[in-house]
Amino acid sequence: MRPFMVLMVSLSCVALFPGASASQTVHAPEAGTRGLEAGIGSGGSGSLLRFTSPAAAWVHGLSASYLNVVSTIPSFTGGTETRTVSDFALIDLSFGRRRYGAIDRAVRPFNTLGVTVGTGFGTGAPRWSGGVFADLGMSYFVTEHAILSAGWIATMSYSTGGNGSGVSFGNRQVRASVSGPRLMFALYF
């Protein structure tokens, strides 16, 4: 169902902006241009962008997410028992390098490679985590000051404390994840 929704949203965007898929001359951000980006999907995020060329930018980000895992198990007295396995919030800082393709087009692919560090609060939360991430997606340079993007993010991390998915070594974990889709809107000036 989820891949179907992503496909439908993508096709709707192309239908709403038919000229976006064609080759267009657009005003690409110049070196030194700064921007603010907000994102939703698998939590919320905010980032500062600093373009070093029309095709590349440094990204400094902050993201937050909430996880609640409840397990229903058979009870010894009959029936079932519900237990909260994890109930926590995560806050992550990230730093990476984003590259955009085809600077002469309004719709451009992008990818970001970077590092992330974070902490969690609540039942089952990791005390800290650190790792690397990569995101991949498409950006539509709507105007000379606005970008609309959609993409997926993959993360490989190491954390201490907490419980959850991943390969565990006592209270330490190594985890790989892919999340998305994530929608982002940026203003640059």
Summarize the model shown.
The chain is mostly beta strands and 189 residues long. The protein has one helix and nine strands.
Please bin the fraction of helical residues: under 10%
* Strand line-up in the sheet with most strands: 1-2-3-4-5-6-7-9
On the 0 to 100 scale, the average pLDDT is 82
- Report Rg: 20 Å
Number of DSSP E strands? 9
Query: Count of helical segments?
Result: 1
Overall outline: elongated
- Unreliable parts: none
Report the biggest beta sheet as strand number plus sense, adding barrel if it closes: 8 strands, antiparallel, barrel
- End-to-end gap: 38 Å
Care to describe what's here?
By secondary structure, this protein is mainly beta. Helices cover 8% and strands 66% of the residues. Strands 1-2-3-4-5-6-7-9 form an eight-stranded antiparallel beta barrel. The chain is elongated. The two termini are 38 Å apart. The relative contact order is 0.18.
List the helices and strands and how they pair.
Layout: H1 2-16, E1 34-40, E2 44-53, E3 56-74, E4 80-100, E5 107-123, E6 128-143, E7 146-160, E8 167-169, E9 172-188
Antiparallel strand pairs: 1-2, 1-9, 2-3, 3-4, 4-5, 5-6, 6-7, 7-9, 8-9
